[in-house]
Amino acid sequence: MASISFVATMVLIEEVFMRNSDDCIAIYCHRWDFYGDCKNVIVRNSSLWADVAHPILLGTHGNPEPGKGETLENMIFQTLIFSIKMNFSLIIRDA
Q1: N or C terminus: which one in the chain shows less Cβ crowding within 10 Å?
Q2: Is the pTM value of this prediction over 0.90?
Q3: How buried is 31 (Cβ within 10 angstroms: 0-12 exposed, 13-18 middle, 19+ buried)?
């Protein structure tokens, strides 16, 4: 699985072709012992092919650090081609 670090800022994923059976790009705030926010992520000019799971998965895994919330902020997705099972493709420009 290729995924962004669970607590990340200032991430650029650009001009990649990625095919796998899990999520191609997974963006989480919390996972295992990592806590915090995920901000300023850009994914552009890429082709993501997920055989079984999702081309992009955004979200939290719940159970944030007690008393604190989790924030996904400033996520930019531009000029992407998604291919999923069932021979379906979706092109996204400037979303």
Answers
A1: C
A2: no
A3: middle
